């Protein structure tokens, strides 16, 4: 977070989590960026909603 906004995920940790769940790195690399974009947008909407 920076200035009350979510900027992104820790991609190293996200890749490790995907690998631990048995996902292939190529699949993680393909799917993670669009998922991250939606989650960051939604998280920032929630922050804005709760903090005005």
Structural description of this entry:
- This protein is mainly alpha-helical and 52 residues long.
- The protein has one domain (11-51).
- Helix content is 71%, strand content 0%.
- It is built from two helices and no strands.
- The protein has helices spanning 11-20, 25-51.
- Helix 1 (11-20) packs across helix 2.
- The longest helix has 27 residues, at 25-51.
- The chain is elongated, with a radius of gyration of 13 Å.
Keyphrases for this structure?
52 residues, mainly alpha, 71% helix
Summarize the structure.
This protein is 71% helix and 0% strand. It has two helices and no strands.
Instruction: Supply the helix-strand structural class.
Output: mainly alpha
Radius of gyration: 13 Å
Low-pLDDT sequence parts: none
H and E order: HH
Name the beta content range: under 5%
Number of strands: 0
N-to-C span: 17 Å
**How many helical stretches?**
2
Biggest beta sheet attributes: none
Number of domains: 1
Overall geometry? elongated
Helical fraction? over 70%
Average pLDDT figure: 89
